[in-house]
Amino acid sequence: MTTTPMRIVHCVRSPIGGIFRHIRDLAMCQSEAGHDVGLVCDSNTGSAFDNRLLEELKPRLALGIARFPMQRQLTVQDLTATVSLYKHIRDLKPDILHGHGAKGGAYARLIGSVLRLRGQKAARVYCPHGGSLHYDPNRFEGRVYHTLERLLGRLTDGLIFVSDYEAAAYESKVGHTKARSRIVYNGLTPDEFTPVPVDEAAADFLYIGMLRDLKGPDLFIEALYNIRLKNGSAPKAHIVGEGPDEERYRNMVRKLGLDGAITFHGALPAREAFKLARNVVVPSRAEAMPYIILETVAAERPLIATRVGGIPEIFGRYANRLVEPGHIGKLTTAMEEALADPAKMAQQAKNLRSCLAETFSVDLMNDRITTLYQEIQGIAPTDSSTPAQADSVSAVPRAQTVLARSSNR
Questions:
Q1: Using CA atoms, how far apart are residues 331 and 234, in angstroms rounded to an integer?
Q2: Are the C-beta atoms of 113 and 124 separated by less than 8 Å?
Q3: 231 shares its domain with 306
Q4: Tens-place pLDDT, residues 32-53
Q5: Which of 168, 252, 299, 320 is the most buried (most CB within 10 A)?
Q6: d(Cα 275, Cα 277) in Å, to the nearest integer?
């Protein structure tokens, strides 16, 4: 199909982690397809590792990268940020304004709506990436954020969900949407499906991800402590990543006397980190469609993960291996079993990898998202076979029990 060039601007608050990986891959694919692409994001977020990735992306984007102060929570400073963002985005004259995450989605839809009132036909597209959908609808914060999502839903032309679970969460917590919508799984590049061998002096376990309670590093540390209590010595482990709670986890390691067993590394490329340990542990309390799970499976590394978000969709028929989220006893047991039978873990990793490549492809991800843009603009036929409205309705029953427990930690 001939591609009509578009001017696409992606908006996200925090250019880190899986959400930025998604944007980076998508932006590069769109740029290579002949579209003019730009990115706006927070100027206060990101380590040296994250900023280096942004600098590497900048030459690929015809509309550039612009950074403005953006707060995580709702504050009066949002008004100033919105005015600055509006002026910048207005001058870019986007055909597509694609917001990622709760804050990026709010900026994109509000600014896109003002542009439309002033004669610019900017399509407003939103992908939650979990975001406000992690909040408990029975708590005050959840009620506030889900009400805002319902209001912003009226200003939305396209919705993209990265998993069936996320579509079900939106339907359950926010409500039915009239926007054109689609479920599009995150994707990997072909070279990421090459198995990664471990170093000769590899440790037993690796945690890789953001250092915040939502991702469960505290559970990982506590499970290692439990194994030490039972066996007299703790398995060797590495923690790779950065985040707001890093110092608290370091203090936890010292308090539990695990300094000699656990090594902190900061941020590293995933495939480099995989070499450090024989087993990867992802003990998340909540997720949407985590890249680290996809990357671990594609690299054929033995994996222990929790039954949250879209992770069961990745595991498919092997979802019975997943651990109950937040259950320290079951996580400890799973890690003990991995130590006891490494051959079984290796075979499970091989089996899981074999069914991943076709579904979780970056090219497929790009094609389905870009086609949705074109449908919204009326320059591509409607993909009536994959509306997220229908998919999310069917997904609700199997996700309900998990949705009831999800909250922002």
A1: 15
A2: yes
A3: yes
A4: 999 999 999 999 888 889 999 9
A5: 168
A6: 6
Torsion of CA 22, 23, 27, 28, to 10 degrees: -50
Residue labelled with tokens 């109950």 = 324
Do residues 376 and 282 share a domain?
Answer: no
Percent of the chain exceeding pLDDT 90 equals 84
65 domain-assigned: yes
| pLDDT recorded at residue 38 | 98
Domain count for the chain:
2
User: For residue 8, what is the enclosing H or E element?
Assistant: strand 7-12
Task: Beginning with the edge strand found earlier in the chain, give each strand of the sheet holding 277-282 in spatial order.
Answer: 262-266, 237-240, 203-208, 277-282, 303-305
DSSP letters spanning 226-259: HHHHHHSSPPPEEEE---TTHHHHHHHHHHTT-T
Report the mean per-residue pLDDT for the chain.
Answer: 91
Alpha carbon distance 65, 71 (integer Å)? 18
Instruction: Tell me whether residue 324 is in a domain.
Output: yes
Give me the mean pLDDT over the 94-115 stretch: 96
**Separation between Cα atoms, residue 69 and residue 28, nearest integer Å:** 24
Is 326 contained in some domain? yes
pTM (two decimals)? 0.89
Listed residues 334, 353, 372: the one ending a domain: 353
pLDDT tens readout for residues 299-310:
999 999 999 999
Of the candidates 224, 192, 194, the residue with the CA atom closest to the CA atom of residue 207: 224
Residue at 15: amino acid letter: P
Q: Which residue range forms the structural domain that includes residue 375?
A: 7-187+361-403
Kindly state the helix (H) or strand (E) to which residue 161 belongs, with its residue range: strand 158-161
Closest by CA position to 224, among listed 260, 200, 198: 260
pLDDT mean over 119-124? 95
Check whether residue 196 and residue 122 sit in a common domain: no
- What's 157's DSSP letter? S
Is the model's pLDDT at 369 over the cut of 50? yes
Confidence of residue 80 (pLDDT cuts 50, 70, 90): confident
Q: Is the pLDDT of residue 231 over 90?
A: yes
**Helix, coil or strand: residue 316:** helix
